[in-house]
Amino acid sequence: MRAFTRLDGRAAALTIANLDTDQIIPKQFLKTVEREGLGKGLFYDLRFDGEGRPKPDFVLNRPEFAGVNILIGGENFGCGSSREHAPWALLDYGVSCVIAPAFGDIFYENCFQNGVLPVVLPEDAVHALAAEAKGGNHLFSVDLAEQTVTAPSGQVFRFDIDPGRKEKLLKGLDSVGETLEHAGDISVFEQRRRLAQPWLEARA
Fold this sequence. Notes:
By secondary structure, the chain is of the alpha/beta class. The protein has helices at 21-24, 44-47, 85-93, 105-114, 123-133, 163-171, 175-180, 183-196; strands spanning 6-9, 11-14, 70-73, 97-100, 117-120, 140-143, 148-150, 156-158. The chain is 33% helix and 15% strand.
C-alpha cells in the first residue's frame, strides 16, 4: 500500500449528504477483485446518462476539474454497504483524500486499509473548502503529519485522527503489512511451538 504523507493537489466538491457506496461504485462494477480499472465506474450513475454519455453538469466531467485528487464530500459520505471497491475506485480515479463532516464507519476503515485519507472536519469548514474548490485549478494541501488542510486562500484547518491509523498510513501499512512488521517475532514463536509441541506438526 502506498504511504500517505502530504498531498498537494486540486479539489472538487461533491457535497451530497448520505452519498452511499453504491453511488460511489455501482454494483455492476463489483465483478472483479482487481483494483485497476475501477475508476471508470466511480460515481457512474452521477457521471453518465442512460446512454453512457457524460453529464456535462456533473463536477468531475467539467474540464477544470479533470485530474483532481482531493474530494470534498457531504455528511455521512460512504454510508451503505461495506464494499471495499469504493476506496479502490477512488484511488484508481486518482483521488487519495476525501474531506467530509462525517463518514460511514466501514467505508472510513476501508479507506485506511487502502491508502485513502478520510479527513473529518466541521461542517462549516467543509463548506468553506467547497466554496474555494468551485473555481477549479486551485492548490490545496493536506499534511497528514501535521494534521492540517490548507486552502488556496491560505486558511488552515486542523483535523483529528487516531494515532494508530495515522502511523500506519504514514508508513503505508495495511493489516497485512502491519502483521509482517512482526515477522521475526512470529517466526521465533513458531520455532518455539514446534520444539514444545512437536505432535502438532505430525501429519495424519
